[in-house]
Specification:
By secondary structure, the protein is an alpha+beta fold. The chain is about 35% helix and about 25% strand. It has five domains: about 100 residues, no CATH class; about 100 residues, no CATH class; about 80 residues, no CATH class; about 100 residues, Beta Barrel (OB fold (Dihydrolipoamide Acetyltransferase, E2P)); about 110 residues, Nucleic acid-binding proteins (OB fold (Dihydrolipoamide Acetyltransferase, E2P), Beta Barrel). A hairpin with a 4-residue loop joins strand 5 and strand 6.
């Protein structure tokens, strides 16, 4: 048997540190144990690749070793490939031994040139790309730790191992760099790898602390080309999809937040919002939230990938439209006669939380909203408690104006129907009134046949708002698996809309109110409650997410 020369050299230079860098120490030890109980068999040699059977699997070992393949379902470097590499390494060592002499130990130190190759790759890696990926805050903290002598522990050999105790991560660099590994299990060039490589460059004099800080302050990533950001987003999502949800590292949350920040500094507000919504879904997944749905995460990932792809391919003017705007454009609309119909506390997947107030305009017969939302995604920053909103010169908070008429003079509204908090707008608080005396009967849906068109995907929230007055209701058994409350609402013809609320933190009071209402309705079928909420579709069902419930529509709410 004659092993191809390129593969032969790669096998001889791959010591245990190199193999551990390809996977992990546990996999290498398991491969050694498996190898002691079986005998691989070479089935084919083609070019620089060797195919052999290892137990029930077939492995193809090639150069670089990290590109080897196996028929097992593992997407990472498996024990079968490591067993095959170890066995071939023994065969190569026997071939290199002079006749009549024993083979050299397979774990001997690799040639000096292997260490030199890794060092050359680490030295040549563009420092600017690392500082852009990490950002000024991380780079400054890195320099400070190095100056204080509290930096990373570095071991060098065929693999350069960098331990980052403040991140609970260990990075192992090998040649080629794309096959380097990190304990976060990310297959992409994660922030841990970027920080470890920058530390190595700093220790070896490739850069100095002063030049590093000067460079990062002059170029913090805000000048990154939009195409580069979109490409990075697509590459990251592709890597996540290949890895699979069950193997997705917890550090993907940090990666999503970092990419959202890069989108912000690069003038891509629509992509930033999409990434923050995806970050919220990832947080729900890793927190094992009962409200998490795999379909929702995949939908978010697909939406982000498609938007990034469209931004990369679109002409300049179309790309500007797709990029969106950071703030809504508010246009003056004169005076508005409003009625505060309802409000709800929200915690959005995009990283914002607060209160949304829903108004009915009595002259135009349409909905408006004021969104009092604040960011909650700033790491390490103390989050303020809820602040009651006072605006438009009103004598009290908006919450205190519930079910009251308001007159706004000098109002400004966005294209989606959101009200501006501008001080140029002046509000007058009028009398409190039951909703049934303010809203016309035509605004209340007792026939559900026309609701389906108002629930189609792509419609804005205000376009999906509806007021329903069902003929009857059927309380469903509480779903303990998906942890959700369901109430089937029926009109006079038996057409149904499902009122669904999933349990999550802060929803206990809402569920208790709905359960009490369902009990009252069951005892008094003539109750005829009114539900105000947002329509949506779930599989083959038309659903309503409730915002307010009224048991006496024409009287005291």
């Amino acid at each position: 048997m004659e092993i191809p020369q390129t593969l032969y050299s790669a096998l001889l230079s791959a010591d245990e540190d190199y193999l551990i860098a390809l996977c992990n120490k546990g996999t290498v030890n398991r491969a050694k144990k498996d190898l002691s109980a079986m005998q691989p068999e070479i089935t084919q040699m083609e070019g620089e690749a060797v195919t052999l059977t290892v137990g029930d699997t077939v492995c193809t070992i090639t150069v670089p070793l990290g590109s080897s393949t196996c028929t097992c379902p593992s997407s990472s470097m498996c024990r079968h490939r490591i067993s095959a590499i170890l066995w071939l390494k023994e065969q190569a060592a026997q071939e290199s031994a002079p006749p009549g002499e024993p083979a050299a130990p397979s774990g001997e130190e690799p040639p000096e040139k292997v260490e030199d190759e890794v060092a050359a790759l680490l030295s040549a890696y563009p420092t600017q790309g690392l500082t852009r990926q990490l950002g000024e805050r991380r780079v400054s903290a890195l320099v400070q730790r190095e100056s204080a002598g509290e930096g990373a522990a570095i071991r060098e050999g065929s693999a350069v191992t960098v331990e980052l105790p403040w991140l609970s991560a260990t990075v192992r660099f090998i040649c080629p760099l794309e096959h380097s590994s990190c304990t976060c299990h990310s297959r992409s060039f994660c922030v841990h790898k970027a920080e470890a490589l920058l530390i190595w460059q700093l220790r070896h004099g490739v850069v100095t602390a002063d030049s590093l800080l000067a460079a990062v302050r002059n170029d913090t990533g805000s000048r990154l080309d939009r195409l580069e950001i979109c490409a990075a987003v697509q590459t990251t999502l592709t890597d996540w999809m290949r890895t699979g949800l069950t193997r997705l590292p917890a550090s993907s949350q940090e990666t999503a937040e970092r990419l959202a920040g890069l989108c912000h500094t690069s003038g891509l507000p629509a992509l930033e919002r999409a990434m923050r919504r995806l970050h919220g879904e990832l947080k729900s997944y890793f927190a094992r939230s009962a409200a998490f749905r795999t379909e929702g995460l995949l939908r978010r990932m697909s939406a982000v990938w498609r938007l990034a792809a469209a931004l990369r391919k679109a002409p300049e003017q179309e790309a500007l439209r797709l990029a969106g705007t950071f703030r809504d454009e508010y246009q003056p609309v004169g005076s508005l006669q409003l009625y505060l119909l309802g409000l709800q506390e929200v915690n959005l997947a995009g990283g914002y939380a607060g209160t949304v107030y829903y108004f009915w305009e009595t002259q135009q017969h349409r909905y408006y909203a004021y969104r009092d939302l604040r960011p909650i995604f700033y790491e390490g920053r103390r989050q303020p408690g809820p602040i009651e909103t006072i605006l438009w010169g009103l004598p009290g908070t908006l919450r205190q104006s519930w079910n009251c008429r308001l007159k706004l003079t000098g109002a400004r509204v966005s294209g989606e129907g959101n009200l501006s908090a501008t001080t140029q707008c002046q509000g007058t608080l009028l009398q409190k009134s039951p909703p049934g005396l303010v809203l016309p009967p035509s605004a209340v849906e007792e026939d559900f046949s026309s609701l389906l068109a108002r629930s189609r995907p792509g419609l804005g929230e205000l376009e999906r708002l509806a007021i329903l007055r069902p003929q009857s209701g059927e309380l469903q058994e509480y779903d303990r698996v998906e942890q959700r409350f369901s109430l089937r609402l029926l009109d006079g013809a038996g057409r149904d809309v499902w009122l669904v609320v999933r349990y999550r933190e802060g929803m206990q009071a809402v569920l208790e109110v709905l359960e009490q209402l369902a009990d009252q309705w069951e005892q008094n079928p003539d109750l005829r409650p009114v539900f105000f909420g947002a329509l949506y579709r779930e599989r083959d069902r038309l659903c309503l997410y409730p915002i307010e419930c009224f048991t006496n529509w024409e009287g005291t709410p």
